[in-house]
Write a structure and sequence with these properties.
There is one protein chain. This protein has 124 residues and is mostly beta strands. It has strands spanning 4-7, 10-13, 18-24, 33-39, 46-51, 58-60, 68-73, 78-83, 92-99, 111-114, 118-123. The protein is built from no helices and eleven strands. Strands 2, 4, 5, 6, 9, 10 and 11 form a seven-stranded mixed β-sheet that branches.
């Protein structure tokens, strides 16, 4: 089993940056691909970024390409999401999730474990 806890959310002005962290428990963290999702009020949850076991392959949603960077540190059982040039459209609850796949997973139903989420609010 993998348990995950997100941190780093908060309130930031448009154009600002935040770095989210997701600390995972469990010895097999490195055996999971990881993803960051977000869900805004009255909108469906969407995949923002995903990363493979080793970090060698990465996926970004078009809406965040060039602004967000996903990374992982398997020695620390942690993944990160560096978010730059934030805009009000990025306001959402952000979740990290783990999938038992080698490469990154793009479907939410592929993800087996989820964190509780952290709120990101971007003011204009």
């Amino acid at each position: 089993q993998v348990r995950m806890v997100e941190s780093g959310g908060g309130l930031v002005q448009a154009g600002g940056s935040l770095r989210l962290s997701c600390a995972a428990s469990g010895r097999t963290f490195s055996s999971y691909s990881m993803g960051w999702f977000r869900q805004a009020p009255e909108k469906e949850r969407e995949l923002v970024a995903a990363i493979s076991w080793t970090g060698s392959t990465i996926y970004y949603a078009n809406s965040v390409k060039g602004r967000f960077t996903i990374s992982r540190d398997n020695a620390k059982n942690t993944i990160y999401l560096q978010m730059n040039s934030l805009n009000p459209g990025d306001t959402a609850v952000y979740f990290c999730a783990a999938a038992r796949t080698y490469t990154y997973a793009t479907g939410s139903d592929e993800y087996e474990y989820w964190g509780q989420g952290t709120q990101v609010t971007v003011s204009s």
